[in-house]
Automatic annotation (TrEMBL):
Limits of the SUF system FeS cluster assembly SufBD core domain: 136-360
Family: Belongs to the iron-sulfur cluster assembly SufBD family.
Name this protein carries in UniProt: Fe-S cluster assembly protein SufD
Family annotation (PANTHER family): PROTEIN ABCI7, CHLOROPLASTIC (PTHR43575:SF1)
NCBIfam families noted in UniProt: sufD
InterPro entries: Fe-S_cluster_assembly_SufBD (IPR055346), SUF_FeS_clus_asmbl_SufBD_core (IPR000825), SUF_FeS_clus_asmbl_SufBD_sf (IPR037284), SUF_FeS_clus_asmbl_SufD (IPR011542)
Length: 408
C-alpha cells in the first residue's frame, strides 16, 4: 500500500520563518546525521543518559529488523508507507538530536497515519508494536497527520523486547483536536529511544500522554511548536521506575505564535536500588509569542532507598507580554498529612501508602479518554506496587522548586 502526500492540512505544512535560537537545551533540528555529533556524555542534552546502555544505537548500524504491528483503524483513517523524501518534506520539525536523525535515516520506510480533514473518528486508532529480542535493532520513522477540524484519539502501545529508536512527527491541522497516548510497557531488557516532534495548527489542540512502565532504558523527547495563534498543547506523563531502570523524559515547548497555550505535567514514582528517573522541561517564549500562557510541573515520589530522581525545569522568555508562565518541581517521600488522614479512618499504614500512590497518579490517568485504558493503567500501577515493601519507609519532607522564576 502506498499513501500519497497531499496538501489537505491547511497551513500546517508551511515552514515557520523564525530564526533558530542558539541554546544548549535545544540544538538546531536537521535530518543530517553528521550535524549531530556522537555525544561524549558531558553535553547538556546527554549528561543524564547512560550512553553505554543504549546498546549501540548512537553508532547507527542499519538493520532490517522490524517490530510486529497490529492495528485497529476507525473508518476513514489510513495507514501506509510514503517515500522518505516526501515524508521529510512535511512541514514539521526535523530531528533535534542524533538518535532522531538516525531513526529517520535507517528506517527504510516512513509510515504515514492519515486522518482526513473534518473526520470525527468513532473509535480510537490503536497501534500495537512488539519486539521479540533485545538483540534486534529496530529503526522507525512515523508521521501522524491530522487534517483541519478533525477529531481523533490515537493509542500507540509498545511491548516485548527490542533495541528501538523511533522518530514520530505529528501535524495537527487548524482547529483539529487530537489525543495521542503512548505506552512504553516493554520487557525488562528493552531499550527505547523515542522523539515526538509536534506542530500545532491555528486554534488546534493536542494532548500527548506518555506512560512509561517497562524497559531497561527509556529515553524520549517531545518537541512542540505552533503554526498559528490559538494553538494548545498538553503534555502529560506517568512513569514508574523499578530497580536498575533508567527512565528519561524531555520536553521542549517552543511558543512560535501569539496567544498559544501549553501545559506540561509529569508524575513519576521510583522504587528499588539504582532506579533512576530524569525529567527535563524547557519552554521558550519567543518575541512574537505575545499573550501566551504556559506552565510545567514535575512531581516525583521516592518509594524506597537507593532510588534517584533528577528534575530540571527551564523557562526562557523573550517577551514581557505574556498571560502567565511558570514551573514547579517536587521530589519527596509520602505526605504525612495524607497518611494521617487515611490511618485515622482505620486504614492500615501499608494500604494507606498504596492509596496515596494511586491518588498521586490518578490526576493524569483520569484524563485519558479511553476507559479500558484507564483501567489497565490502574492495574499496572497496582502490579508495580505489589513488589514493594512500603511499610518501613521514613517520612522525609518534599523538596522542589515551586513556580521558580515564573510569572503567574
Amino acid at each position: 500500500m502506498t499513501t500519497t502526500v497531499d496538501n489537505s492540512v491547511e497551513n500546517i505544512e508551511n515552514t515557520l520563518e523564525l530564526d533558530h535560537v542558539e541554546s544548549h537545551l535545544h540544538p538546531e533540528p536537521t535530518f543530517d546525521v553528521d550535524a549531530h555529533p556522537v555525544p561524549m556524555g558531558l553535553e547538556e542534552i546527554w549528561r543524564f543518559t547512560p550512553l553505554k546502555r543504549l546498546r549501540g544505537l548512537l553508532e547507527g548500524t542499519a538493520s532490517d529488523a522490524v517490530l510486529q504491528r497490529e492495528e485497529q483503524l476507525p473508518e476513514g483513517v489510513s495507514l501506509g508507507p510514503v517515500p522518505a523524501d516526501e515524508a521529510r518534506a512535511l512541514g514539521v520539525n526535523a530531528p533535534f538530536d542524533r538518535l532522531g536523525a538516525l531513526a529517520a535515516a535507517n528506517a527504510g520506510e516512513t509510515l504515514l497515519l492519515d486522518v482526513p480533514a473534518n473526520l470525527e473518528a468513532d473509535a480510537p486508532v490503536h497501534l500495537r508494536l512488539s519486539g521479540s529480542s533485545v538483540d534486534d535493532t529496530v529503526w522507525a520513522h512515523h508521521v501522524i497527520r491530522v487534517g483541519a477540524h478533525a477529531s481523533v484519539t490515537i493509542v500507540v502501545d509498545h511491548a516485548g523486547s527490542a533495541t528501538y529508536d523511533a522518530l514520530t512527527r505529528i501535524l495537527v491541522g487548524d482547529s483539529a483536536r487530537v489525543d495521542v497516548v503512548t505506552i512504553n510497557d516493554w520487557a525488562d531488557d528493552a531499550v527505547h529511544a523515542g522523539q515526538y516532534n509536534v506542530r500545532v495548527g491555528r486554534d488546534a489542540s493536542i494532548r500527548l500522554f506518555e506512560i512509561s512502565l517497562g524497559g531497561d532504558l527509556v529515553r524520549t523527547s517531545v518537541n512542540v511548536d505552533y503554526a498559528g495563534p490559538g494553538g494548545s498543547a498538553d503534555l502529560l506523563g506517568v512513569y514508574f521506575a523499578d530497580a536498575g531502570q533508567h527512565i528519561e523524559h524531555r520536553q521542549f515547548v517552543d511558543h512560535t505564535a501569539p496567544r498559544t497555550r501549553s501545559n506540561v505535567e509529569y508524575k513519576g514514582a521510583l522504587q528499588g536500588q539504582d532506579a533512576h528517573t530524569v525529567w527535563i522541561g524547557n519552554v521558550l517564549i519567543r518575541k512574537v509569542a505575545e499573550g501566551i500562557e504556559t506552565f510545567e510541573q514535575n512531581d516525583n515520589l521516592v518509594l524506597t532507598d537507593g532510588a534517584k530522581a533528577d528534575s530540571v525545569p527551564n523557562l526562557e522568555i523573550e517577551t514581557g507580554d505574556i498571560a502567565g508562565a511558570g514551573h514547579a518541581s517536587t521530589t519527596g517521600r509520602f505526605d504525612d498529612n495524607h497518611l494521617f488522614y487515611l490511618q485515622s479512618r482505620g486504614i492500615e499504614e501499608a494500604e494507606a501508602r498504596r492509596l496515596v500512590v494511586h491518588g498521586f497518579f490518578n490526576d493524569v490517568i483520569r484524563r485519558i479518554a479511553v476507559p479500558e485504558l484507564r483501567e489497565r493503567l490502574v492495574e499496572a500501577i497496582e502490579a508495580e506496587l505489589a513488589g514493594a515493601d512500603l511499610s518501613g519507609l521514613d517520612r522525609r519532607p518534599q523538596t522542589g522548586t515551586p513556580a521558580e522564576g515564573g510569572v503567574r
